[in-house]
Amino acid sequence: MRLSRYFLPNLRETPKEAEIASHRLMLRAGMIRQEAAGIYTFLPLGLRVLEKVCRIVREEQDRAGAVELLMPTIQSADLWCESGRYEAYGKEMLRIKDRHERDMLYGPTNEEMITSIFRSYVRSYKDLPLILYHIQWKFRDEVRPRFGVMRGREFLMKDAYSFDFDFEGAKHSYNRMFVAYLRTFARMGLRSIPMVAESGPIGGNLSHEFIILADTGESEVFCDSEYLNFEVPGPDVDFTHVGRLQAIVDKWTSLYAATSEKHDPAAFAKLGSNGLSARGIEVGHIFYFGTKYSEPMKAVVTGPDGTDRPIHGGSYGIGPSRLVAAIIEASHDEAGIKWPEPVAPFKAMILNLKQGGADTDPACEQLYADLRAKGIDTLYHDLDERPGSKFATADLIGIPWQILVGPRSLAEGKVEVKCRADGERELLSPADTIAKIAS
RNA sequence: CGGAGUGUGGCUCAGCCUGGUAGAGCACCUCGUUCGGGACGAGGGGGUCGCAGGUUCAAAUCCUGCCACUCCGACCA
């Protein structure tokens, strides 16, 4: 992408309202724009990151055996009356009437709808287990939205729902999601720690929050620092193997880890110097809730003995829009964002340090063409700005690899390659540059 | 929902206390000089001062109401 043809509205000055780094940087980098309290437009650069996050989420859901569909944002109130949550959910739910005065709502979550879909089609225990998910915008009318997309009212959520015949089956589905979540966050360069959690208004009794540690996290968390050394399961993990999956979950739940609501100071004190008290950001939350929805909503399957039984359910959420902010919280410096490569909006950025130069222009064009030919997503800064300004932009938007093409180094047939993560620079030939970035 | 605050050009803000008809920096447009870490000079465009009412000869400024947004607390992917 040529910057001259892109839409990247950077801000030089920090907007007043932004208190935390990710909000500040997302606004300054031209990733988001506020439309109302807690409601944001994702500008082109922000959308690129959001889509990369979603792609990883999707790949790991699929790997774990979940199946994607897409439910609407607007739901009928009728379903929610069936489960009893139409009254229970309170003011956080945005209620709407259509032109016929029918009660509708903008979905804050989808347990009711997915249960209704399930019961329409699934009759037999032989069709289980089943995990369905979608990635869709949600609306929760938070009392106090804040921190940009970290706590917006409208936010993107991946929500998965599992259906099993009995508790044992549901436990395995829970474990699938548990391990998928560990992998998902790790692939985004995040170290997540599963913590025992309250199950909240969704209900149920088996629940973990996936927390990433960041100084600006919203909640206080306590855990065994040994978690930081745990190895995340590789891509070859067998999600169908009940025992092996259980072993992974057992390991990741063997040590102390709790959010402040579930914190046990006495147990924590026993950890001694291994006790880690920190701030954390909740990026995922998984629940087993048994027959909470299947009973009132009559989502039943016929078992081997010929009798109908309500299914055991669970739900599993990840907030991709929040993750974008969380990744920034975990990876930035004074100059700007430092994207982990898997979620970076572009992998490389070419900085033409002398726009219009007889040597630099053709060198940049050639490099740009060669990078694209290699399939490397590249942003070419071809605007007529001073070098300092280009450096500032590059650092701000945090592209992993910056390629500085200036007359000085070009005289030796070299360009300068700068790695945003560690700040290291290297003079390389264009061919070596491409090889290095491609590797 | 309680408490605090803000609303003036695209952005950051000054002006308000003490009413006299709107400013700065950045950004933008033109020309020139520049160009390896957010350049400089000259010229230029752009604002119903959140909205409505009131007081006054006169309101960005004072009064009343409303709206929006932000921050602190209780709730949440």
What can you tell me about this protein's structure?
Helix content is 31%, strand content 28%. Helix 1 packs across helix 9 and helix 2 (44-63) packs across helix 9. The model has no long low-confidence stretch (mean pLDDT 94). The two termini are 21 Å apart. It is globular. The protein has 439 residues and is α+β, with helices and mostly antiparallel strands. The chain is built from 13 helices and 23 strands. A hairpin with a 5-residue loop joins strand 5 (94-97) and strand 6.
How are the secondary structure elements laid out?
Blueprint: H1 21-28, E1 32-36, E2 39-42, H2 44-63, E3 67-68, E4 74-76, H3 77-83, H4 85-88, E5 94-97, E6 103-106, H5 111-121, E7 130-139, E8 154-164, H6 167-187, E9 192-196, E10 206-213, E11 219-224, H7 242-252, E12 257-259, H8 265-269, E13 275-290, E14 300-302, E15 308-310, E16 312-318, H9 320-330, E17 332-333, E18 336-337, E19 348-352, H10 360-373, E20 378-381, H11 387-397, E21 401-405, H12 407-410, E22 415-419, E23 425-428, H13 430-438
Parallel strand pairs: 3-7, 19-20, 19-21
Antiparallel strand pairs: 1-2, 4-6, 5-6, 7-8, 8-16, 9-10, 10-13, 11-12, 11-13, 13-16, 14-15, 17-18, 21-22, 22-23
The structure holds one RNA strand of 77 nucleotides.
